[in-house]
Amino acid sequence: MKNILEYLETAAKNYPDKIGFTDMDRAASFLQVMKHSKRIAGSLQNCEANSPVAVMLDKNIQCIESMFAAVYAGCFYVVIDVHSPASRISRIFETLSPKAVITDETFLTLAQSVHEKDTIILYEEAVKNPIDEVFIDEVRERMIDTDPLYVLFTSGSSGVPKGAVLSHRSVISYINWVSEEFAFHSATIFGSQTPLYFSMSVTDLYSTIKCGGTYSIIPKTLFSFPVKLIEYLNRKQVNTIYWVPSAMAIISNWNVFSYAMPEYLKTILFAGEVMPVKHLNYWRGFLPDCSYANLFGPTETTDICTFYRIERPFQDNETLPIGKACNNCNVFLLNENGRKAGIGEEGELIVRGSFLADGYYNDPEKTAAAFPQNPLNSSYPERIYRTGDIARLNEKGEFIYISRRDLQIKRMGYRIEPGEIEAAVNSLEDIKASTVIYDDAADHIIVLYDGKCRDTSEIAAVLKTKLPSYMCPDRLIRVKTMPYNANGKIDRAQLKKQYIG
Amino acid sequence: MKQTTQQLLKLLQELNPDITYEGRTDLFTSGDLDSISIVMLVPELNDTFDIEIKVTDIIPENFNSMEGMLSMIQRLQNEAE
Questions:
Q1: Greater model confidence, A119 or B29
Q2: Are the beta carbons of B59 and A223 separated by less than 8 Å?
C-alpha cells in the first residue's frame, strides 16, 4: 500500500452505496465522495507535484472531498481554521506558499484576503469538473508512500505556527495500529468532535475509510446544547467517540445523562489534554459497559504514541497513566544526562518509529532541534522526536505524564504556546513586555503586561484580530514593572505566585 | 423587571460588547451568541439571578433573544420559590 486513497477506493469498491460520511446537511457514500474528490482534482492540474493546497472550508463533507482532491492531484493538503483571524492565516501562508486554495462562497472573501485570486478554487465549480482518469492514474503512478499527505500547523513558541509534515507512510503505519488496537470495523460509527486542522481528526477520518465505517460530523453548536447533543448521537447511532476531555466534561458538568442517555455508545476514547478523573467517573457511572481509553501523543507522531485502557476504578484525585507505547511505536524517556531514565525517574518523552512526522515545513532549524539523531544510537542514522513532555515510568511499566518541559498550555485540546500570545501582545504599540501565565485551577490564560495603555478592553479587542478565540486571554493585567530573574528573563514564577498564588 | 433586563444586558455586553442584543430573535441562529459564549453565560446567569439553569433549559429557543432569556430566568426564579 502506498497511498491513503487506496483506503477510499477499496471502501468505494466494497461498500459503494454505504453512507461513509455525514454532516449537518449531507449524507454521502464512499463512492460519491471518491467521485467528487476526483472531479475537484481536475482544478489542481497545474499544481506541481507534492506542492501545498490549502483548504479553507468549514468542517463538512465538502472539506473532506477537497482534502482528498489535493491528494488525487499529487499534492498535499493543509486544512485552515476559517474562524481564525486572517492575520494568522496569512502568517501560515507565508511559511506555506500554497499553490492553490480550495474554498466556497461562504469563505471566498476571506480566501481572497489572504491569497491571490487566480489560484482560488471554488468547491461549487470544481465539483462539476469531469473526472480525468488519465491524469489521476499518472499522478498515482509517480507518487510514493513517503510523499507528504498533509501539513498540520500547531502553535509555535516564537509566535509563528509550526507546520508538521506527515507522509502517507506515517499515516498508514499509524492507522494500522489504531484501527487494530480498538478493532474498528465497518459497523463503527464515529461521532466526530475534533476539527480537521487538528491531529485527532486523523484517527477517526482515516480509520473510517480504512474500515468502511461511518464518520459522522457532530455540528459544533450541539456542544452548547448538551441534551440535543445526546439526541444527535442517538439519531446517528454513534457507537464510538474520540473526543477531547473538555468536550466530555460538558456532559458531566451538566449532569446530562440524568436527562438523556446515549443508547449506542460502546467505545469511548479521549486525548488532547489531561482527563480529570472526576469527569471520567461520571461517564463510567452511567456507561459502565463501555470501554474507555486514554490516548496520548503530539501531532508530530501522527496523533498518538502511548495509550492506556481504563480497566480499574480510579479515585477522582488520581492521575490517569498515559500507558504504554502503541504497537510498532517506541517510546522512552531521556533524563537530563541524555540517558534512558530509570523506573520512577523523570525524563523527556522520546518517540521513535514510522508514526513520526518528517519535520516542520520550511523550518530546518526547528526540525533539526525537534527531530535529532537518536542519542542512544551512534551506529547509523536514526531520527527521534523530542516531545518536550516530561513523564516517568511507574513500577507497572506505564508512563505517567508530568508536565510540559516548557510552558505550553493545553486547553480544550488545543496546544497553546504562551510565546504566541506574548508575541501578539508585544506587537502592540506601547507594550514594553508581556508574560502569559496560566491559572490551572480556573483554566484562565492571564496576560500580564508592562505598557502605557490602561484600557485592557482595547488590548483585548486588538488581540481578537490577531489570535484565534481559544488563545485570547481571560484576564489582562497591567503591571507597574515586570520582574526579571537572575538570568535576565521575565520571572514567570514570581508572577505566577503573585497573581495566582 | 426593568432591573433584570438591565442586568442581563450588562452580562451579555461583558461577554461580547460587539453584539447588539436588544430587539433580536436570532442571537444564536445568527452565530453571534456562539457555543463558547453560551457555555460561559450560563454560570454567570446562575450567579447573577440566583437561579439554577438545568441542562434541559439549554436549548436554542431560550437563547435566541433577550426575551427568551428573561422568561427563562423568571420561570426559574418562580420555580425556586
A1: A119
A2: no
Provide CATH code, domain B2-80: 1.10.1200.10
User: Is residue A72 in some structural domain?
Assistant: yes
Domain boundary among A115, A144, A173: A144
Q: What is the pLDDT of residues A435-472, one digit of tens each?
A: 889 998 888 999 999 887 888 999 999 999 989 999 99
Please answer yes or no on whether A227 and B17 come within 8 Å at the CB atom.
no
Give the ipTM of the model, two decimals please: 0.78
Output the CA angle A370-A376-A382, nearest 5 degrees: 55
Say if residue A387 is in the same domain as residue A427. no
CA distance A113 to chain B (A): 22
**Which of B17, B28, B35 lies nearest to residue A223, judging by beta carbons?**
B35
**CA nearest A428: which of A468, A456, A408, A409?**
A456
Give, rounded to a whole angstrom, the gap between the first and last alpha carbons of chain B.
Answer: 17
Domains of chain B: which residue ranges?
A: 2-80
Domain end residue (candidates: A404, A439, A459): A404
Q: For B10-55, how does the pLDDT look when each residue is reduced to its tens digit (9 = 90+)?
A: 999 988 888 999 999 999 888 888 766 887 788 789 889 999 888 8
Chain A residues with CB-CB distance to B27 below 8 A: none
Could you tell me which of A280, A359, A347, A355 has the C-alpha nearest to residue A314? A280
Could you tell me the pTM of the whole model?
0.84
For the residues of B33-62, what is the DSSP string, one character each?
S-HHHHHHHHHHHHHHHT----GGG-SHHH
Chain A CA closest to residue B29: A221
d(C-alpha B37, C-alpha B46), whole Å: 14
Q: Is residue A60 part of a domain?
A: yes
pLDDT digits (tens, 9 = 90+) for A281-328: 999 999 999 999 999 999 999 999 999 999 999 987 688 999 999 999
Q: How many domains does chain A have?
A: 3
Q: Does a structural domain hold residue A1? A: no
